[in-house]
Amino acid sequence: MRLTAQLSLSDARSPRAAAFSLIEVMVVSGLMVILVVSLLTAVLQMDQNARRSSDYNSLLELAQGQLEMIRTNTYSPPTAPFGTATNFTTNITSTLGYALTAAGTNYQLTATNVTTIQTVAEGHLVTVTLTVPSYGKVIKAPLQVQVQAVMNRFSPGQP
């Protein structure tokens, strides 16, 4: 008895059918490069947004601190700073040190601090505005925060 093996065409694999073609490898490699670049771009954008948000919150806290310094004055118009005319206080060369660099040291920004106290029907409207004129390494856009409060004899902290 003799055993013979019969091979069908579907069982026989040619060397070309067992591997990927060069075009298929190049297409997949190109898609992987596109995915990696888009992922890195998204991560860098999230990092920049987180830093900007942190800096914005720091400026907001500084503006709130300036407002609290004004609030510590006894409210007794027409004595300063709560007069009958609008009072502007501008400090252009205010240097604000509030954040940490990657090395863990403080860095400072030069900001414009404008404090306005104006008479309104309920008392005096105090507006504190902090502006950093050129913020960011890539986008040179100004960063500005503003805090407002109405001061009168019923304000917290008044005798």
Structural features, described:
- There is one protein chain.
- This protein is an alpha+beta fold and 159 residues long.
- The chain has one domain.
- 31% of the residues lie in helices and 33% in strands.
- It has one helix and four strands, in the order αββββ.
- A four-stranded antiparallel beta sheet has the order 1-2-3-4, covered by helices on one side.
- Strand 1 and strand 2 form a beta hairpin.
- The longest helix has 50 residues, at 22-71.
- It starts with 21 loop residues before the first helix and ends in an 8-residue tail after the last strand.
Summed up:
This protein has 159 residues and is of the alpha+beta class.
List the helices and strands and how they pair.
Layout: H1 22-71, E1 87-100, E2 106-120, E3 123-135, E4 141-151
Antiparallel strand pairs: 1-2, 2-3, 3-4
Distance between the termini: 118 Å
Q: Assign a percent range to the helix content.
A: 25-40%
* Low-pLDDT sequence parts: none
Structural class: alpha+beta
Give the rounded overall mean pLDDT: 77
Strand order of the largest sheet: 1-2-3-4
Number of domains: 1
Beta-strand portion reads 25-35%
Largest sheet: 4 strands, antiparallel
Tally the beta strands: 4
What is the N-to-C order of secondary-structure elements (H for helix, E for strand)? HEEEE
Shape: rod-shaped
Count of runs of 4 or more consecutive helical residues: 1
Radius of gyration: 33 Å
Task: Quickly list its features.
159 residues; alpha+beta; four-stranded antiparallel sheet; 1 helix; 4 strands
